[in-house]
Amino acid sequence: MQDRTSHVTGGEEGFPTDTDGLPAAGRAPVLELADGDVLDLRVSPVAKQLHDTSVRMLAYNESIPGPTLKVHQGSEIVVKVVNGGDFDTTVHWHGLRLANRYDGVPHVTQAPIPVGGEFTYRIQFPDPGLFWYHPHIREDYAQELGLYGNILVLPHDGEYWPPADRDFFLTLDDILLVDGKVAPFSTTETNYAAMGRFGNVLLISGEPDLRLAARTGEVVRLWLTNTASTRIFNVRLPGARMKLVGGDGGRVEHEEFVPELLLAPSERAVVDVLLAEPGELQMEHRTPRRSYPLATLTVGGEPVAPSRNAQFTDLRRAPELGAERQRLGAWLEATPDKILALVAEMADVISGAEAMAHGAAHASEDEGSDHEHEHEHGHGAVDGIEWEDDMPEVNRLTTSATMSWRFVDRTFGADSTPSDWRFTAGDRVKIRLVNEMESDHPMHHPFHLHGAGRFLVLARDGVTESNLVWKDTVLIRTGQTVDILFEVTNPGVWMAHCHIPEHMHSGMMFRFVVDGPHVATA
Ligand SMILES: [Cu+2]
To answer: How far is the CA of 502 from the centre of ligand 1 (A)?
Structure first.
């Protein structure tokens, strides 16, 4: 869509890769900001050490991730963004319900910020929880190279979260390196359009080898954000119990112990861990085939007193979401107001090459993993998730020109890109999202709605959601149907899109309009 025509520098040679004279990327500071505070946020290139190679990346205020902004619910801050990067940018404040003009969508809510230019955002924080910020132009390049940071909105209510001794902000990301360099990007079109760009080095809070330390007996809170382009993370922490306390937009309906946590691109989770014993814990990403180390957590020192055991095992409930549960039945029964299909169309030359690549991959598979290829259309997918790129050569060659990812409005049997979605602030709208198997390349999609409101997941494949939480992004697995209840609150022109940037830039995005609230007349 509009992002494709954005101006870039670099021309024929591609984006700059030289690290000479660049400052080394730092670690993200936590910045506490009060109502009315002004933050200067500057985009600029940095040199980032990744194992034995140094690569040129992009950073907010020279750190990857960018600074974590700690703000208060109900406050407003001013952010002056200066673009010292390689090409046009904007900042999107992911998950925040804010004034439409500061949503950071190029050509829709603002003009792109050119290199050397600046733009001032005024952002509000109506909801407590964990949010994040990133560009909304060529995210396949700019977000991949390090432009992302967290926002923690502290609640009015001091009892909103259970007590915790320590916070860790952990972004889950990956980057694709080839021969010690970041795999090339085109300045004019998005590559890896089929599956999105899977990295081969995992970066947790920007680090390939993250080490954390905490004291024996503490409850630590993990604030997790998936900032990867396409990789879904399944987080485990063997040897410790994980208690899920929150998601995208605040706390969960009921706290629960979970063995693992699935996070699609741009989703968040808030998890408490009781560090009962001294020792070393390994956080890992576990796929059906293998596990990857994410971070090492060293636990030591004299145990804290008093014991946190009683508070940790207490599973609390959120009354505001309990009230939503009471009203859920009627929405589960209701006919969807909108039905949206997610489909792919490939140019013939690509689909033929893809079929050959898969034939070769199947022939060379060992017997042990054959069952994972039984899915007719699912490639290496298990349970509707593409855990890895099993066709990297074909994927690299697919671009926004040869691959067309589409949303198709199937409301009332329609069959076209949604062009006339119009809601009124104060509406609640049931939307059915259908990831259709009858397309050229069905795949998982994290579906994101911008800050026009927030939504609850009602049901997945007809199964009622068991633990509600306000969300802005939901994973739609291959072949899956997900019903959401969208609470519309903020007027403006807003975007809906797949959060895999390669899909979004290949067509999986549309805009909708929200009118101001109805005014009662006498
Ligand atoms: Cu997608």
So the answer is: 8
